[in-house]
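user: can you give me the structure for this one chain? tokens are fine.
assistant: on it. calling the predictor now.
[tool input]
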Amino acid sequence: MSLDRENRILGAFYGLALGDAMGMPSELWPRSRVKSYFGWIDQFLPGPEENSAACWFKAGEFTDDTSMAIALADAIVEAEGNIEPELVGRNILNWAEDFDAFNKNVLGPTSKVALSAMRSGTPISELENLGLTNGAAMRCAPLGCLIPTESLDDFIALVAEASSPTHKSDIAIAGAVVVAWAISKAIDGESGADIMKTLPSIADAAQNKNVNTFSPRLASRIEMALNIVRSGNDTDQVMEDIYNVIGAGTSTIESVPTALAMVELAKFNANRCAVLCANLGGDTDTIGAMATSLCGAINGYHDLDSVLVQQLNDANGVDFTLYSTAFIRFREERERAYAGQ
């Protein structure tokens, strides 16, 4: 069945929430503890009281990953398809204050510093924001839904602009570009296998655009992560190798290649991808959010488990069709603008 692009956009938004909520209970726990405590996660669970990052959430609720992506999406809607960093920063800060995120273990270190500075009145243009963590990549799915891939230079610049309220480092921007680019290609109907082939070169282009850290090469990590998946034949052992060799931490250089590896390991199936990411250990909710959003964009909304989708709707009260309707319009406007150049 041929999928329309609005269906793929809706799949990206719901995939984001699915991977985030499935991975929430185990987030930031070591792989060994995830196995001993849960056995195997294959449904939405509440955050355990023992998990200081997840204890605030009920079963099926998504975390800061999806909440910040919604803040970004709302800023884009308010700006009629444009990216205005001050609006993005305002929305993220509003969410953080409403959720009392500064007093809970839910904000990444880079975002926490940046949001604290914004709260004190520092303009985004004056913030250094050179942290290496994955806060830009975890919320970038709306950018993949919005921005066509006609111009890589424009794509990188727009992702950098949207990321700037909290992240300006070369590696953080590169990670966000890679995830958003993959989603954008998926929305245009490119196959998962073909998308994966292009991502190392996209990573290089983005990371080399404005070098301001001494981070390792993201492209090399992506290649290494995908090779681990392709050379393995036992799912649990592949996950073990990804966890131990590539890493599942909150840094961009670990989590983005690992998310892509999980997409490949799940054979691009969003439902399976969410489960695998939840059982990986480490930054499970963020890795799940990035990976499952891409799977959702590749196979569309109708490939998602309808029971899980209903549970997401019931737990979070968010109607993602409002975003898919708006974002297909914004995307087509951008495409017409490129065609008229």
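assistant: here you go. The chain has one domain: 5-339. The chain has a mean pLDDT of 97.
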